[in-house]
Amino acid sequence: MNADPATPVLPQGAGFALRPWRGDDLDSLVEYADNAEVSRGLSDRFPYPYTRQDGERFLEGQVVDFAHPVFAIEVGGRAVGGIGAHPGRGERAHGAEFGYWLGRPLWGAGLMTRVVAAFAPWAMRQLALYRLHATVLDENPASARVLLKNGFEEEGVQRCAVYKHGRVHDLRVFAKVRRSLQDAT
């Protein structure tokens, strides 16, 4: 039971729950984040190697704004990944960009597809969004499949948008939209 009616009920699904990050997540955060394959598809604010100091900075809110919906993905009582949305501002306040990551040992079992299936409609309802979008590095087809399986449409490619690991990469843009806040998400 949610004691505070102003606090939204967070999405859950088969084999996972989304919840706020906690200070006691540090060990599992570092364990699952410290992987070159995980870092490869994310922005440079998610470093590799991922140290305890990186985890402390993240949990203290120095890396992302915890005023926005930024959640730990919990499996078996441990934080094994994260998902969050960053709402736009001004004339773009009707939309948000979101991103996610998952520890390498949990890849390939459909977990992130289920997480996005729960989070995306929740975020669109909770934030009253007409648009939710994500960008995917050209070298990350698995992430693109997660979005496509969840009804996101590929809108195009931002060519030569990112310089990472010594080379230029394209970013694929995916979005889910609705024309009315009453439309199903």
Report on the architecture of this protein.
- This protein has helices at residues 26-33, 36-40, 52-59, 111-126, 141-149; strands at residues 12-13, 16-20, 70-75, 78-87, 95-102, 131-137, 153-164, 167-177.
- α1 crosses α3 (52-59).
- It is of the alpha+beta class.
- It contains five helices and eight strands, in the order ββαααβββαβαββ.
- It has an eight-stranded mixed β-sheet, sandwiched between helices.
From the structure above, extract its key features.
single chain, 185 residues, alpha+beta, eight-stranded mixed beta sheet, globular, disordered N terminus
Low-confidence stretches: 1-5
Mean pLDDT: 94
Distance between the termini: 25 Å
Tally of extended strands? 8
Q: What's the overall geometry?
A: globular
H and E order = EEHHHEEEHEHEE
Write the layout of secondary structure elements.
Blueprint: E1 12-13, E2 16-20, H1 26-33, H2 36-40, H3 52-59, E3 70-75, E4 78-87, E5 95-102, H4 111-126, E6 131-137, H5 141-149, E7 153-164, E8 167-177
Parallel strand pairs: 5-6
Antiparallel strand pairs: 1-2, 2-3, 3-4, 4-5, 6-8, 7-8
Helix pairs in contact: 1-3
Task: Provide a compact summary of the structure.
The protein is an alpha+beta fold.
